[in-house]
Amino acid sequence: MNEIFDIIGLIAATLTTSSFAPQVYKTWREKSSKGISLTMYSMIFIGAALWLIYGIHIQSAPIIIANIATEIMVSMMIYFKFKY
Amino acid sequence: MNEIFDIIGLIAATLTTSSFAPQVYKTWREKSSKGISLTMYSMIFIGAALWLIYGIHIQSAPIIIANIATEIMVSMMIYFKFKY
């Protein structure tokens, strides 16, 4: 039974994390960060770091995996915001 | 000791959830959803619903609170994307 919920958690992690991908791609392709809020991405960056600490503590694989991946994506968006 | 991690989780929840607020405000103020990816927000919407199921199962208050709030914010962005 727990495996089902782990799978649900992992699908959730995949969706919310890869949800950043289209925005990363769009920003990279259009070479424009207009309409992108740096405040938003900065808050997600700090938030994901804290989620990571929380996830490690409660030993939740979906939370750990999701937030490592989120940090990678968000770092790219912050880089683009300064570059474009 | 657990309380500390619950507080970390709640701060994480507040940051990642309220991170949507500037983008919601910016989109509403500029009456423009240019640069906003509908794909991104649709994926977050489904992902947050699954996180909610997962959070209820593992009885994690930060996950439950974060994802209810996320659904409210993301619903607003999807509404703006169709309106503007």
Beginning-to-end CA distance, first to last residue of chain A:
47 Å
Oligomer kind: homodimer
Biggest beta sheet summary of chain A: none
Give the SSE string of chain A.
HHHH
Mass-distribution shape of chain A: elongated
Measured by DSSP, the beta-strand proportion of chain A falls in: under 5%
Helix content of chain A: over 70%
Biggest interface pair, counts:
A-B, 41 and 41 residues
Helical segment tally of chain A?
4
Given helix and strand content, the structural type of chain A is: mainly alpha
Total beta strand runs of chain A: 0
Low-confidence stretches of chain A: none
- Summed over residues and divided by their number, the pLDDT of chain A gives a mean of 91
- Radius of gyration of chain A, rounded? 14 Å
Task: Identify the notable features of this structure and list them briefly.
homodimer; 84 residues; mainly alpha; 4 helices; 0% strand; elongated
Fold and architecture overview:
2 copies of one chain form a homodimer. Chain A has 84 residues and is mainly alpha-helical. Chain A is elongated and about 45 Å long. In chain A, helix 2 packs parallel to helix 4. Chain A has 4 helices and no strands. Chain A starts with a helix and ends with a helix. Helix content of chain A is 85%, strand content 0%.
Q: How would you briefly describe this protein structure?
A:
The structure is a homodimer of 84-residue chains. With 84 residues, chain A is mainly α. In chain A, 85% of the residues lie in helices and 0% in strands.
